[in-house]
Fold these 2 entries.
Entry 1:
Amino acid sequence: MGLLEALILGIVQGLTEFLPVSSSGHIELVKYLFQEDVIPEEGLLFTVVVHAATALATLVIYRKDVGRILESVFKRKWNDDSKLAWHIAISMLPAGFVGLFFEDQIEQLFGGQILLVGAMLVITGLLLVLADRAKKTHKSVSWKEALIIGVAQAIAILPGISRSGATISSSVMLGVDRERAARFSFLMVIPLILGKMALEIKDLFSSTEPLVVDKFGSLAVGFIAAFVSGLIACKWMIGLVKRARFTPFALYCFIIGLIAILSTLFW
């Protein structure tokens, strides 16, 4: 993989991990546009690296929240931070269930399924439109909302469904305060990304293919690109959620989704 490809893929991963436009869907579209496997031998290692970058970006943005949550958990305090940790744990159950029992079926949805990606992007656009029209409230996330938001996160495993778009949209439609919705969405992605990384590292070391580590330049470029773009996208998204400005992203998802659908039907 060249430096330019690493830069593009890193930026795509960083931006789309936080913006409501689907990172998995855009990675599939980038691969489709290149008409080849743009991530060759070091592909799994590169994926681990860019996921680590987006996880680090989230930790940097929410370092104070994460610090308070860890302190409350380790000191066994029952307060708002420990409740948040409990709600995050509940939200992980649906995605964990789907990943554990439907891994093979999920894998079949990736790898050139551009028609599916396009259709799911259109659905993401519809969710964003509904989120923009939701009434503003000051409601917090309860365990019931956490479970429903977790179901939305599990559905977002589909390529083209935005994880942040699905979780934040479901949160505000449930009446959760917008700022709390964004905070919960981005905090709950940390264990998800770390879980992905654990599985990828396991596959990396269990693979019979030789581990390619001679292209540190590409890996470094991908990491930096994903980290910096992730920081920018995360901060930007927090502001957008507060101001209910999802409609431009909805239009973007509609346009890209329809282009993807038409490209598979007529080309």
Note: The radius of gyration is 18 Å.
Entry 2:
Amino acid sequence: HIPPLRKRRDDIPLLLDYFLEEAAEAMEKKKPTPPRELAILLSNYAFPGNVRELKAMAYDAVSFHKTKILSMETFKKAIGENEMLEVSSTGEEELFAHLETLPTLGAATDSLIATALKRARGNQTIAAKMLGISQPALSRRLKQRED
């Protein structure tokens, strides 16, 4: 039994590299260099189509590739706006069941932002996407938190 790709996030960069090389060879192109943010973006995607979906994304990206650095736009379009893994996949009852009192809205917001930034490895654009807000909105919240 092989677990689904969403449970093997560490395999994503290796598989991506393999599929990019395979696609480039098949299309007689030079293998593009993926931006480091791409692995972070993909590690926060659920991959309902499993490894075949990642392979298709890589082939699609290489087919549209024109410069040395691979564009993330093809991957972002394939993932879609609302397909990022949720920061918490548990229900409301489970999320707060261990707490005697509920956190304040400010504390919950701070915790949610911190968790998203941790999962996005500090990348604010990806964290904002996971939270369902724009990157400027996340920046404003972070600035307010500092003040």
Note: The chain has eight helices and no strands.
